[in-house]
Amino acid sequence: MLTAYLLAFEGGVHGDWERGARPLAHALAAEFRPDAVWAVFGNASTLVVAQKLARAAGAPWFMDIKDNWESYTPAAVRGLMARRFKDAAGYTSNAHLHADIAARFLPHRQTILYSGVADAMAAPPDANARSDRFLLTLVGSTYRDEMLAHFLSGLQRWLTTLTPSDRQKVSLRYVGMARSAVDRVLSRVNVSCAIETSENIPHAELAKLCQSAAANCYLWTPYTFHHKLLELLSTRRPIISYPGEHDESCRLSREVNGELIVCSDEERLIAAFDAVWKRWAAGEICGNACDISGLNWDAGTEMLEKLLQSALPRSGRSRQSEAVEGLMDRPLSER
């Protein structure tokens, strides 16, 4: 019940954020005069700050539910949070999966706003995979050691079907925050190909790596939408998901003409590795027709702007524009 108390009386778990922002709310409301406020939900304190700023400014505010609401809010306080933030004009969510879960508790209007993909990740249509090495990447969180061990077991079982000379052409590269977990599991299992692991790397470097791969892989867990799928789709390479994926992700992949291979067990994983290997050996791993222009940062910005503008008065006159014009009319010494 500590969370409930902090939410009711201390501005959320990170009440120091709310206390630090409190003196600024009226100044922002008076000088910046926001037309709308949009708050990213990583914890309830960000929502409290946005709510109080919006009230001070007399402006509507929106929540951004980027993650599974049930994973980040204890069951005992979900009703309290719904009542606490009932005055929000709506919320955005980065997946139908997360929006549908949030809708069990939040009766607000919802807008699906997929997290954008950096332009650096997008491969040109004529980009080809490396021809000298069959490179597989494993990207992102690994969740449970057991799941990772099964993935590596499937890889090893497939490797044993290759000749020794072909096996030398295969390499696996892991990139992500779970490097220590990957290294720990690798120390306990046998994988007979070259392996390299690293922490997160810059977008441009990640893009170059994934665009040079024969296939990009990730581990799936059912409680969240995996945004990494959109980033990997933009590299125009086959994507292997293990041990499953949501229908929403499969539909998205089809809509943008991407190639997502969902493997529910080791046998399907082995078959996927083998199918991609044969295509690579035949020189057939080239840029596919995937087009994620509707899911990049520019597209997301445009959608968000339309949502926020929908909350403006019908005159469409921006109070921020009026405030800026008023500020510019003042002498420099008063600005």
UniProtKB/TrEMBL annotation:
Residues 315-335 are annotated as: Disordered. Residues 319-335 have a biased composition (Basic and acidic residues). This is Glycosyltransferase family 1 protein.
